[in-house]
Give the backbone structure.
Amino acid sequence: MKSDIVFRLKQGSIGVLPTDTVYGIVASARIPEAVERVYALRNRDTDKPCIVLLPDAGALEEYGIVPTVYESEFLDKRWPGPVSVLFPCDSECFFFLHRGTKMLAFRVPDHAWLRDVLRETGPLIAPSANPQGEPVARILDEARSYFGSRVDLYADGGKLAGESSTLVQFEGNQMRVLREGKMKL
């Protein structure tokens, strides 16, 4: 099943996958058309970037991001895990991801199966699997009730905790919490 999921995501399909926090509606962060499908399905504000899931911190290089020593030490302690980190990303080639904010949030999930998928698919956008403003999906049937056949594939991970990731941003050698979530800092 994993090989089918990987193949389909690399071809531009969108899916609902379990993460270490909540179910996410995922698409390749390399395929603008797939990203736009996710925005349309979720009725997501078009100027609001999505979190990008990575298999490891080294994948930040694809976005031109080179963490400082302080940032690297932080990431080494907290990734994989339920903490998303906001980094400057002003390249126009990633406009479809940063939506003009010139900032992107990244996370390495603490979910071995999903990191294996990410190693093969590359980065995936992964907003929670619910229409904007609705409760997050904690079980797969909740996500199916939201999206039905408009999503190309579903993977069941059982009942999930249902708490979003913590979102942080660095300012020099200081870390600022922008959203409290599953990881308490």
User: Anything to note?
Assistant: The chain has one domain: 2-179. The helical segments are 2-10, 32-42, 69-78, 95-98, 112-121, 140-147. The radius of gyration is 15 Å.
